[in-house]
Design goal:
single chain, 426 residues, alpha/beta, D-Maltodextrin-Binding Protein, domain 2, 2 domains, two-stranded antiparallel sheet, 11 strands, 14% strand
């Protein structure tokens, strides 16, 4: 899956002592026209206190990934056209893209952290960053506040999880532009009545393939019952809730509803091939995966993941633009580019071609068809939760993965495993 790997994937690997060499820049710069003025934005205005001087051309450097850059694919060509259209409308602002890996050593975050520590003058003007890695970059002082640069109309249009991901310690530091969530995908020829609750799943007995070996299967079920953070925003696991989830998984396995092989599946992408080949009636899948393959699967339909009481729950992830440069004129130019490219009429054609979801409400109707699927996704994303990685979260995730494995192998009871999960956070 192109957008992200795991929903709550850890941030990139620790920075090396010296920056790794960058791959060649993928230049999309148009010929400089230094004396022309900047064309006005079509969206609600850029604040006048950060004007762009029309005294010369500005070439902005954007660090991004291959999947999120102009290129030779159908989606990449659309994005190239949009970048070119921006340059045509803003003739003294040019964009050069430099490709990085999405994660790990040589990834966007890794290069930002390393370059900031060693040669900050070589930092880019802006970057595309996984929203799960925004807190680490912001904590390092790499990201610039956006409130002086951006229209609040843009921020107010974010889905709740995206609005949360866009802020760090009360400051707006990121502009989420693409997102993803998981939901149920089922074979309508096998599943005549879509299960909404655990009881529905167990009574129907159609195979439900969940990535039990990873974290998302547990997390979605837990969040449908209880929040993962207490009133003081401290991560906590309620042993009673955890026990209920583990008991459901055990009962489903004992009845043959969830197959034994589920414990070896780390992500929903691991489960997807089994569903595609008709060996499972239902599975938990990324919306982007369903969008990519649905034309080849005419009998595949979508629904919320069944939960204890039928309450919808989803974990969201995505990517955001961030501004890195400290130069006021370059910040203003970067803000102008971001506000232009994330407008629905500019972003939606790329989203549709790339089979991705927007992070804002107004762009959803332009990006997804048919209309009823777009409405379903919007409802799911209004409820979705964003969980940035942290040492505490990673510790909890390790505990519940170990707990599920122990229950699955018969080494402990769901109650004992739930107590161990809760104790791991004390």
């Amino acid at each position: 899956m192109g957008i992200v790997g795991a929903t709550v994937a850890c941030a990139g690997s620790p920075a090396a002592s010296t920056p790794l060499p960058s791959p060649p820049a993928a230049s999309i710069t148009a010929a400089a026209l230094p004396t022309l003025s900047v064309a006005p934005l079509a969206t609600p205005g850029l604040p006048t206190r950060t004007p762009i001087a029309a005294t010369g051309a500005i070439t902005l450097t954007l660090w991004t990934t291959e999947d999120l850059a102009p290129g030779a694919t159908a989606a990449g060509k659309i994005l190239r056209n949009q970048f070119d259209a921006f340059t045509a409308a803003n003739s003294n602002i040019h964009i050069d893209t430099v490709l990085k890996r999405p994660y790990g050593q040589g990834g966007v975050l890794d290069f930002l952290m390393t370059t900031s520590a060693v040669v900050p003058a070589q930092l880019p003007d802006l970057a595309a960053l996984d929203i799960s890695e925004v807190p680490q970059a912001a904590a390092a002082g790499i990201l610039q506040p956006l409130d002086p640069l951006m229209s609040n109309d843009l921020k107010n249009d974010f889905f709740p999880f995206a609005a949360q991901a866009a802020e760090y310690q009360g400051k707006w530091v990121a502009v989420p532009f693409t997102a993803d969530i998981e939901h149920l995908v089922y074979n309508k020829l096998i599943v005549k009545r879509v299960p909404q609750t655990w009881d529905d799943v167990l009574k129907q007995k159609a195979t439900l393939l969940l990535p039990i070996g990873g974290g998302n299967a547990f997390l979605v079920q837990y969040l449908a019952i209880a929040p993962l953070f207490d009133a003081s925003q401290q991560l906590t696991v309620d042993p009673n809730t955890a026990s209920q989830v583990l008991n459901f998984f055990k009962r489903a396995r004992d009845l043959g509803v969830v197959p034994d092989t589920a414990i070896g599946l780390k992500t929903s992408d691991d489960a997807w091939p089994t569903f595609v080949t008709g060996k499972a009636a239902m599975t938990q899948a990324w919306a982007s995966r369903y969008l990519t393959d649905r034309d080849k699967l005419p009998d595949a339909m979508y629904a919320s993941v069944p939960t204890r009481d039928g309450k919808s729950a989803a974990v969201a992830t995505g990517w955001a633009f961030v501004i890195v440069t400290k130069d006021p004129a370059r910040q203003a130019a970067a803000a102008r580019f971001i506000q232009w490219i994330v407008q629905g009429e500019h972003l939606a054609p790329w989203l549709r071609a790339a089979r991705r979801l927007p992070a804002s409400r107004s762009t959803m109707i332009l990006s997804v068809d048919p209309v009823d699927y777009g409405a379903f996704l919007r409802d799911q994303m209004e409820r979705a939760v964003y969980l940035p990685p942290s040492a505490t979260y990673n510790k909890a995730a390790d505990a519940w993965r170990a707990g599920m494995a122990a229950v699955w192998k018969g080494q402990t009871t769901p109650d004992e495993a739930a107590s161990s999960i809760a104790a791991a956070l004390k």
